[in-house]
Amino acid sequence: MKEFFSNQPSFPPVLGLVGHSMLLLSLLLVVIGAIKYHENKAWQRTFKGMQVLQLILLYSWYLATMVPISQSLPLYHCRMAMFVLLLAPDDAAYKEYFSLIGVFGSMCALIYPVFDPFPWFHVTIFSFIVGHLALLGNALNYLLRQPSYQLSPGRIAAITFGVNTFILLVDVVTGGDYGLVWNYVIETLLFTAILTAFLKLF
User: Fold this and answer.
1) How many domains, in total, are found in the chain?
2) Running DSSP on this structure, what letter comes out for residue 177?
3) Membrane-crossing residues (predicted)?
4) Is residue 42 assigned to a domain?
5) Tens of pLDDT, residues 53-90
C-alpha cells in the first residue's frame, strides 16, 4: 500500500496493446451496461459508489501529500462533472450539461489516456481509470433516464462560456494548468459543437 499512496513521481505507466485493449473493453462494457441497466437502482448505486470511493482516495492523497492547490482543485471539466453528477438535483439543466461532458470527456480519456508520472499501482492511476469509468456510467445512467432535455445549442454555448471563464480565472489565480483553456474562444466553440452533437444521440 505504500506504493499506492507514494508521493515520489517516476514515469507514467506504458499501456501496451493489452492494457489499451482492456481500457477500451471496459469502456464498451460500461456503455452496453448503461443502455441495458440504466433504470436498475443497484447498477446506479454501483457507479456512484465507485465515484465516491475514487474521489475520497484521491483527495485524501492530495491532503496527505500536500499537493499544491494548482493541481488538486477539481476545476477541469471531467472532475467538475464527477461532483455535479453526485451532488446536483436531477432536474437541473447544468446536470444535463455535465453529463454530456462526462460522456465525451471519459471516452476521450479512456481512448487516449494521459497518466500522471507514477507506477501502475498508484492512487492517481486508479483514480484516472476508475474515475472516468464511473463518470461515464453515471453520465449515461442519468441521460438515458431523462424523458426530455432542457438543453439547447444556445444554452450549451452559454454554460460552456461560463464554465470556461470560471476555469480560466482559477487557472490564472492558482497558476494551474488546465490545458486548452488558454485557447479560450476555440475551446468554447469546439465544446459547444461537440456537446450539441452528443445531445442529439440521446
Assistant:
1) 1
2) -
3) 12-35, 55-76, 97-115, 121-144, 156-175, 181-199
4) yes
5) 999 999 999 988 887 766 656 567 899 999 999 999 99
